[in-house]
Each structure stands twice: as structure tokens, then as C-alpha cells.
């Protein structure tokens, strides 16, 4: 489905129903499709909404407006448009930072009503993300090139995924707009919103793969957890950066446990 938020069209993968909505946000170079397997397990209990952020997936790609707050404002506007009353915000990598900005209160919408908790999968930290300069340049120069997307796939996965999933990861990388791509690498990833983290009052639950080389677990302990006053941190063995693709069942268990306080039966 396409919805208009902040004057642009955002694509939303929408399934299920329930009193609580699960709002899923994707990683840099990804799309809402990374959440399909997770949603398959959860849509019988919850209303599930996976959003393509501006310039990504099948959403519109305006020329400007790609700051962390711009993306958070888009999500806030969409939640208002859809009359979401109670929700859990689930952010992955880049959008973990977006989720933290939204929870702290965006510039245009303030703190969202009805936010119950944050579940963050290998989130980008509220301080500048530690991307080596040479890697940043490789990513900038490799935009839109299949060989670069294939190398990124190797760099950010550790567990085996099917050929079909591999191809989807590559295609999501290739269809990310240059505006969104460059803006994250040159600006968004470097933003420092750490001074706003004291405003994040809901519980925050973080999960990272032990073999994540894009945002290793120590990034969470050094650059994320110290800024949050109500957070938990867990790891999943042998998994890389793309937990929703690599270990969806483990992630479903984690989400259910953190929402209900109990492991699923």
C-alpha cells in the first residue's frame, strides 16, 4: 500500500490485525521486504506495518529531506495518518537511529503517543557511526553497481541464506536512490543525537549478531547502551548484520519475549 506522509508517498507492507501494531523499519540499503518472514509469524497476533523509508524500496525519492529527523518525522506522520494507537517500534541498523530519534521526540511531531517500547536490531548508535573512511568511500563510489552490492552482501551476512534471499538483498541495495544513499553516508550516519536520549523513556531492547562486522556487538556496549537509561542487550550466536534475513525465527522469539515478557510456546 502507498500512503502520503509529509507530502511524499511511502510504501508500506501491511498485514495482520490486533490492538498493538508492530512498526518495522529497515537497514541502510534495504527495504520493508526484509521483514516478510518475521511478519509471517507475527501477523496473526499483531497489526504489522513495514515501511520503506523515503528513497528506499518502493517509496518516493525526493531530492532532499534525508536527515535522521526527516525520516523519523515521516514515520510519525504515517502513524498519525493510519491512526495507530498503541505500537512497538522495531528498527534495524540505520533505522535504529531513526527509531531512537522518534522515541526522543522529533522536531515537528514531538514524542509519539502510544509508543510502548523499542526493539532495535543492530542499531546505528545515537553518536556518529564508526564507518571507516575507506569503507565509506567504497560505498559512495559503488552505488548502483551490482559488484559492489554483491560484496556488501558478503560483508554483512554470516549465516547461509537462500539464493532467492541473496538476490533480494542485492536488488534492494541497487534500487536505493542515490539521494538516500549519499545522504546517509555523508550526513545521517554522522549525526549526533545523543543529547536527546535522556528523553527516551520507554524500554529499549537490543539484539545483535556475534558475527556482525558492520556494527559489531561492542558498538552497542560502547556507543548505544551508555546513552539509554532503560535498555537490555542480547546477542545471537553465529549471525551477521542481517538478522531478519539470517535468523527470522530467532528474531520472532526475541520480539515476542520482549513484548509479552515470556517466551512463545
TrEMBL record:
Keywords: Hydrolase. It comes from the Bacteria. One of its GO terms (molecular function) is hydrolase activity. This is Alpha/beta hydrolase. The lineage of its organism: Bacteria, Pseudomonadati, Bacteroidota, Cytophagia, Cytophagales. InterPro entries: AB_hydrolase_1, AB_hydrolase_fold, AB_hydrolase_sf. Residues 21-137 form the AB hydrolase-1 domain. GO terms for cellular component: membrane.
Amino acid at each position: 500500500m502507498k500512503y502520503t506522509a509529509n507530502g511524499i508517498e511511502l510504501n508500506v507492507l501491511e498485514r495482520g490485525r490486533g490492538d498493538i501494531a508492530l512498526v518495522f523499519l529497515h537497514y541502510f540499503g534495504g527495504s520493508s521486504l526484509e521483514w516478510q518472514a518475521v511478519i509471517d509469524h507475527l501477523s496473526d497476533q499483531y497489526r504489522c506495518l513495514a515501511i520503506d523509508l523515503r528513497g528506499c524500496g518502493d517509496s518516493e525519492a525526493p531530492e532532499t529531506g534525508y536527515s535522521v529527523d526527516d525520516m523519523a518525522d515521516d514515520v510519525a506522520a504515517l502513524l498519525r495518518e493510519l491512526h495507530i494507537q498503541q505500537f512497538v517500534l522495531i528498527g534495524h541498523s540505520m533505522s535504529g537511529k531513526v527509531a531512537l530519534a522518534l522515541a526522543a521526540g522529533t522536531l515537528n511531531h514531538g514524542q509519539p503517543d502510544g509508543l510502548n517500547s523499542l526493539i532495535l536490531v543492530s542499531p546505528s548508535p545515537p553518536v556518529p557511526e564508526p564507518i571507516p573512511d575507506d569503507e565509506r568511500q567504497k560505498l559512495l563510489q559503488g552505488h548502483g553497481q551490482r559488484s559492489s552490492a554483491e560484496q556488501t552482501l558478503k560483508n554483512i551476512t554470516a549465516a547461509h541464506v537462500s539464493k532467492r534471499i541473496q538476490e533480494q538483498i542485492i536488488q534492494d541495495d541497487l534500487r536505493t536512490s542515490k539521494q538516500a544513499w549519499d545522504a546517509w553516508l555523508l550526513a545521517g550516519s554522522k549525526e549526533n543525537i545523543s543529547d536527546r536520549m535522556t528523553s527516551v523513556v520507554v524500554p529499549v531492547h537490543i539484539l545483535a549478531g556475534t558475527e556482525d562486522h558492520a556494527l559489531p556487538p561492542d558498538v552497542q556496549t560502547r556507543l548505544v547502551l551508555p546513552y539509554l537509561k532503560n535498555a537490555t542487550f542480547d546477542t545471537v550466536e553465529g549471525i551477521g548484520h542481517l538478522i531478519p534475513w539470517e535468523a527470522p525465527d530467532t528474531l520472532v522469539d526475541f520480539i515476542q519475549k520482549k513484548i509479552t515478557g515470556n517466551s512463545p510456546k
